[in-house]
Structure formats: C-alpha cells, structure tokens
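User: Could you walk me through two proteins back to back? I'd like the raw sequence and the structure tokens for each, with a short line separating them so I can tell where one ends and the next begins.

Assistant: Of course. Protein one, sequence then structure:
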Amino acid sequence: MKPLTNLLFLVSLTVFSQYNYDASEAFPFGQANPEAPKQITDYEAMIGRCNCTSTRINQDGTWTEPESMTWTWKYILNGMAVQDETLKSDGSHSGSIRQYIADSSRWYVHWYSSKTPTTALPTWEGNKKDNGNIVHYKEQKAPNGTDGFFRLTFYDISQAGYKWVGEWVDKTESVVFPTWKIDCIREEN
C-alpha cells in the first residue's frame, strides 16, 4: 500500500504544480508564469478589477450616454496567457483571451461576446509600444469600402486605471475615426 500512497502523492504534486500561477486565495487574479515570454507582464497594471464607463458613436456622429461596466483581468493557463471579461449594466458579457506568440513577436487577442455569438472568434494582433500604449489591429473595411483596420488602443495605463479606444483607421493611419471609448478606474488588484 505504501508505494500506491507515494505514487498518489507524486501525482497530486505534479497536478498542483501545473496550476501554481492560476487564481488562488492568495492571488485571486492569478500570477504571471516566470516561464512565459516576458511580454506576459504587458497587461500587469490591468490585472484585477476596474469600474468603467463605455460609450459608442451613434449613426449621427454623437456619442451614446455612458454605460457602466466592470472589466476584470486575470492570468490564465497557469500564468501563460491573459483573460479579460466585461459585465455591462445591461447584463451583457464580453471578453478576450490574449496569448503572446514568441515566434511572431506579437499578441493575439481572441474576442467573444454574449450579444454576438459566433463560430469563429475575431482576432486582433499587436504589441505594447515604447510609449506604454498597447495597440492591436484587425483588418476591416470602412462602410465606403476603403481598406483599413479596426485599431484597439489601451493608454494612460497605471495602477489607478486605464483608458481604451476602438477606432477605424486607414492603412496609413492618417484617417482615424473613433467609434468606442472606455474609461476605467481600479477597484481591486
């Protein structure tokens, strides 16, 4: 019986060690895995929970009234990736799974939403810039057919919170049309 007990102990240690960096009582939002690419800490200041206001552009060019939302960030996959989830005041949810792929030297962001379920998740890609902003792009034509991107930018990132803007830009990024803005203030981390 003793060899079986030893084997079970070793198996339980192995399983536990596979999740050392997931959410726990001590680290409710997980931790960055030291074996992950160093870019895993690009989102470090956002890990935790923020109270946010979200506003979108109307067809007439005016902005909607701000909508309250909570935006929660955590490390997942044993600290090898980042997940964010939103809960909006209308009860809708959305989120992203963010993985840094060292071979391409960039982040890939896979977005999902309870309002727009899909069989294939849209994907943005990008990086943290020298100015501290995190910028991601997904090819998207303008309503008039002009080639461009939907660009997502996190900026003014600090332990107090951050801001986010979604905007259509042309291929040269000289034409910029913001369509969505979110301002966040830290609740907990």
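----
Protein two, same layout:
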Amino acid sequence: MGTSPASAGSTVFGGERFLTGDDGMLLVQVGAAQLYLAGASGASLRRIENSGEAALEAGTLSVSTSRADALHIDLGGATIRPLADVPSYAQTTLVEPRVFLITILRGSWEFSYRCERETLREGSSFRLYLDRARPCGDDHTLPQKIKVITRPSRMGILVVGAPAVGGIAWGLHEAFESPHRP
C-alpha cells in the first residue's frame, strides 16, 4: 500500500494506492465490497465513507459486492457501478492507455461516460475506448457521436470459426484414412 508492503489485517484509508508485483495479488474489504487486484496491477481508493471509489491505474481489478451503493470503479473518467442490491461481480483490465476490457460476471452494472449511460448485462464483455472529445453541453447532449463500447460481431466469430472446424475435420480424415487405400 503506497510505498510499504501490505500485511493481513492492515487498515485501509481513502487515498491509498495499491500496487502488486508480477506474482502478487491483493484482496481488500471496503464496506460491503471486496476488491481483488491481480498481479502487476495498480489501483487507488479515493474515498471510503458510505461509498467507495476505486480507480484502476494498471492491470486488472475485480469488484464483488451485494450493494449497489457500496463502490464504483473509475476507468479514467468513465465509471461502472452495480445497478441493484444483488450479488454483483465485474472485472476490469487496462489494456493500454484509455482502452479497457470490462467483463460482467454477475448482476447488471451501469456504465457512464460523459453524457452516455448504458446497462451492462451479466455474462457480457466489452472493449472500451475512451476518446478525448469535448464534454457535454448545457443541454446534456453530445457535441458529436461517441462510440465507446464495441462488441465482437457474431460474423467475426463465424469467419474465424469456420476454417478451424474445416481444418479439424481434414486432420481427423487424414489421421484415420488408410495409407494402403488407392
């Protein structure tokens, strides 16, 4: 934590920074939420009153909670938070500056970035590209259309999957074909 090694049972305060080594990991209880920081990751905790805010700075951060107001995750200006008081679990990874991978493993989460809001459903993954567009105007509309979430298309999966299936079928045919057959 900060510049010192953490030990089991350490007290955590708002403003703390957490860093893990390549083979390290850290689990932090923040009220009704648990933060899991994977190896080679970094995050900071900005406040801990009735609600917390964890900011992902590097690597992978996972959050588990059963209260919607327990904690939200800051992803460089974008935020995600649970939508309801049900068991919720999300994992976020900083892929490169301003590019995040968000995986919703349990519950529904709300994504917000500037004036955009979207519900992220359980079992979905998103690659998030944050742009540097101007902020919203007074009328709360975007000055230009911003596409911040992209989802892999089913067509892309089909295009990649079809040759793989064909290759496997050909390999099985060759493996079981008799070499003495004309």
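The two ends are 71 Å apart (CA to CA).

Let me know if you want the two compared in more detail.
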